[in-house]
Amino acid sequence: MSISTGVTRVLVLADAPVLRRGLVGMVDETAGLQVVGAPGEPRRALVLAESARPDAVVVELGSGRSATLTAVRDLRRRFPRTAVVAVATSEDPAVVNEALAAGIRGYLLMNASATLLGWAVLAARAGRTVVDPQIRRVQPGTAAPVARELTPEVPLTRRESDVLDELVQGQSNRRIGENLFISEDTVKSHVKAILRKLGARDRAHAVSMVLSARNGCTCGSHDLTAASVEV
């Protein structure tokens, strides 16, 4: 397998063949990412990592959570610079915290988009922590945070708020246009207005600001790095 310079090498670990194929497809369709292996059993992950030397590992965190987290701990001990992102079924904050304690730096739900998965992988590689925006993370021993919304000095219009919600879900400009029945050029105009009103550097920064407000935690400042930044 030929790997281009600058490409992030990803190992996909998932028990179910259908899910494994789906995750492989999501990774390979994301610019800058390429699958270098897809073991079906957690115990094979370390062996394959020895030969493939991935930059990141995407793991399924479902019914076999215990075995998968054990494999993650082993991977992190052997390859501490390898970023691990989980695609999980549980929204339980206790499970999220257990995963993060095991060394997972990205925790997404199964319905996450390929774009959001790509962002999470790159953010995890940069040492940041990403928790799916659909999850309200609770730190051990603390009360559940109150969900908040950003309140820019210049309020967003209703359509800008709709576009921002789509950005948080990791949608591309083209998909946002399709979902909201507007042109891609109109989407770009709304995104520029959103960035200006929020004082965000780019769309990834805008998403990080929303996630931080909604989840009530810094989570590594949620400073996501987009696989490819659109405007």
Mind explaining what this structure looks like?
With 231 residues, this protein is α/β, with parallel strands linked by helices. It has two domains: 8-131, Response regulator (Rossmann fold), CATH 3.40.50.2300; 158-222, Winged helix-like DNA-binding domain superfamily/Winged helix DNA-binding domain (Arc Repressor Mutant, subunit A). It is 45% helix and 13% strand. The protein is built from nine helices and six strands, in the order E-H-E-H-E-H-E-H-E-H-E-H-H-H-H. It has helices at residues 17-28, 42-52, 65-78, 93-101, 114-125, 158-168, 173-180, 184-198, 203-215, and strands at 8-13, 33-37, 56-61, 83-88, 106-109, 130-131. Strands 2-1-3-4-5-6 form a six-stranded parallel β-sheet, sandwiched between helices. The two termini are 33 Å apart.
Topology:
Layout: E1 8-13, H1 17-28, E2 33-37, H2 42-52, E3 56-61, H3 65-78, E4 83-88, H4 93-101, E5 106-109, H5 114-125, E6 130-131, H6 158-168, H7 173-180, H8 184-198, H9 203-215
Parallel strand pairs: 1-2, 1-3, 3-4, 4-5, 5-6
Helix pairs in contact: 2-3, 6-8, 7-8
